[in-house]
Amino acid sequence: MSVEKINSSENPTFPHILSHATKVSGLIFLSGQTPVDVNGNLVAGGIQDHTRQCINNLGNVLKAAGSSWEKVVKVNVYLKNMDDFGAMNEVYEKLLPNPKPARTCIQAAKLPNDVDVEMEAIAAT
């Protein structure tokens, strides 16, 4: 089985701890993306701006892997506060194509750099 590690030049990289994605046998496993810009700085705004940035960052990785949001089969969303669920969903609903992929959304006690949202995905090639 072939295993390919993928990184997007449009996202900050952390090669010492992870790849943005790993592609194997028709599937792409995307690492969690937080609401940071290409320089690794937290984008300004609240949960809706941060959700948008996470989705954009995942989109960058999908593009680098030769896939797209239309091929995403599963999304995991980690929220710092479940009270942000509705506001996150407003952006998620608008930005992801229909039909939506399967999804899990949980509240996480602590996310990297104390961000309010992190998202990861699995896509087909």
Give a verbal description of the structure.
Strand 4, helix 2 (85-95) and strand 5 (102-107) form a beta-alpha-beta unit. The radius of gyration is 14 Å and the shape is globular. Helix content is 23%, strand content 30%. A six-stranded mixed β-sheet has the order 1-2-3-6-4-5, covered by helices on one side. The two termini are 15 Å apart. Helix 1 (47-64) packs parallel to helix 2 (85-95). The chain is α+β, with helices and mostly antiparallel strands and 125 residues long.
Key phrases:
alpha+beta, 6-stranded mixed sheet, 2 helices, 23% helix, globular
Strand runs, count: 6
> Would you list the SSEs in sequence order as H and E?
EEEHEHEE
Strand order of the largest sheet: 1-2-3-6-4-5
Taking Cα atoms only, what radius of gyration do you get, to the nearest Å?
14 Å
Intertermini distance: 15 Å
* Percentage beta strand: 25-35%
Structural class: alpha+beta
The poorly predicted ranges are none
Largest sheet: 6 strands, mixed
Q: What's the helix count?
A: 2
The helicity comes to: 10-25%
What are the SSEs and their pairings?
Elements: E1 3-6, E2 21-24, E3 27-33, H1 47-64, E4 72-79, H2 85-95, E5 102-107, E6 117-124
Helix pairs in contact: 1-2
The gist of it:
This protein is an alpha+beta fold and 125 residues long. It contains 2 helices and 6 strands, in the order E-E-E-H-E-H-E-E.
